[in-house]
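ASSEMBLY PREDICTION REQUEST
Request ID: AP-0331
Submitted by: J.K., bench scientist
Number of chains: two
Total residues: 509
Priority: normal
Notes: Please return the full assembly, not individual chains.
Input sequences:
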Amino acid sequence: MALSNVVETPASGFNFENVSRNVALEGLLEGGHTKAPKPMKTGTTIAGIVCKDGVVLGADTRATSGEVVADKMCAKIHYISPNMYCCGAGTAADTEKTTDLLSSNLTIFSMNSGRNPRVVMAVNILQDMLFRYRGQIGASLILGGVDCTGNHLYTVGPYGSIDNVPYLAMGSGDLAALGILEDRFKPNMELEEAKQLVRDAIHSGIMSDLGSGNNIDICVITKQGVDYIRPYQESEYKDKRQRRYKYRPGTTSILTEKIVPLELEVVQETVQRMDTA
Amino acid sequence: MAAVYMSANRPENAFSTVDLVPEWAQEEVSTGTTIMAVEFDGGVVIGADSRTTTGAYIANRVTDKLTPIHDRIFCCRSGSAADTQAVADIVTYQLGFHSIELDEPPLVQTAANLFKQTCYRYREELMAGIIVAGWDKRRGGQVYTVPMGGMIVRQPVSVGGSGSSYIYGFMDSNYKPGMTKEECLHFCTQALALAMERDGSSGGVARLAAITEEGLERRVVLGNQLPKFSNA
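STATUS: Completed
Returned structure:
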């Protein structure tokens, strides 16, 4: 057993130790009639299309943890770079972290090389990372962006496979959304028509899939810039809070108060001047 | 009444314990596939279907499974999409480096052996069945097959993927040595059509490519243009 005061250098590569521990824990918990908490998944509908002037991405905003809606206003369209955004489906933590990591790496690259990152570069980085982790990172991503070579839309699967197609839908509501896209997609659509199509595709996912719901976010990426419309459309099924859940100060009465001063002795004082000229 | 009874007693209800992602979408993306390659005097013809599946869902119906490894060398990918894309990327890099060092176009045999080395070394982790085909100056058109497990063998005609089982008979009886490029293209189109008809994991469009000394010619045969064999 590792001593807490000895630093262990981590072994290189991905470490699968916790997988067997988790399986053992599940077994123990199940015996005690409690279940391990399910990871928060964005059971989701996300979609993207390439249109004449750029790329339109759309997503719903529901994040579920088992059968409970954990977040009603979850942001599934993640910023990657000024010209690229990425929608994520799968385990919420995995999509967040993977896209954050990608965004950081690309920012460093832009600073080092003085260039705007290209969509193919982002896709290759994602594919590389997800393949290395052999599917343990549950992230299905739709990456869309506009760069000097044109408008691009890619999907990266959790095992590291990529597909480059003009229109895509992923997540648990993908079948419903894809039905709409297959019916009405045309190459080189106008922007307004494209936004409407993506909205309709996400709406269809929300209506037909239990894991998708609440509002619709749309992100339009063009050469001129990015229009991140959140929410593009709000759900008609919002309800009002029954009561106030904030308590005013003084609701809990203070019965006694005891102050114990901590006696600290100044042992050594060093002053170091900082040159902040 | 019946509905209430069911949801009360059954541990899994409509939106089951599985996290709202249906089983068929949780499987790895696979190119359950039909791929093939044929040698002719002066080059090779390669062909593949265009279906990629995750379980029972077709994730991409217009996949391009014919991946360029070098100017005159291609590979046909079958098996796990992620694994084959990764291996193809690795070999593309290795072959490109090798070619720059040599300062001449690489041999198809080299490319095939690079595939074999990766596929054999990582045979337990990978699920990849690959056909390497191309043209080089030394031996002309060549087809090498590197199935799962990492074997390598040169064959004048080779089929692979889940749909290949249905066309071994067609291939054996219809292949003749000494066919022209057009005859090879026709042969491949027919074989792919037959396999796509019978294999559930193959379908979409038929992608073909002819690789010769002059260059590369790619063709797509759309679903409705594929040859039909039965009246049903």
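REVIEWER COMMENTS: Residues 1-20 of chain B have pLDDT under 50 and may be disordered.
SIGN-OFF: pending second reviewer
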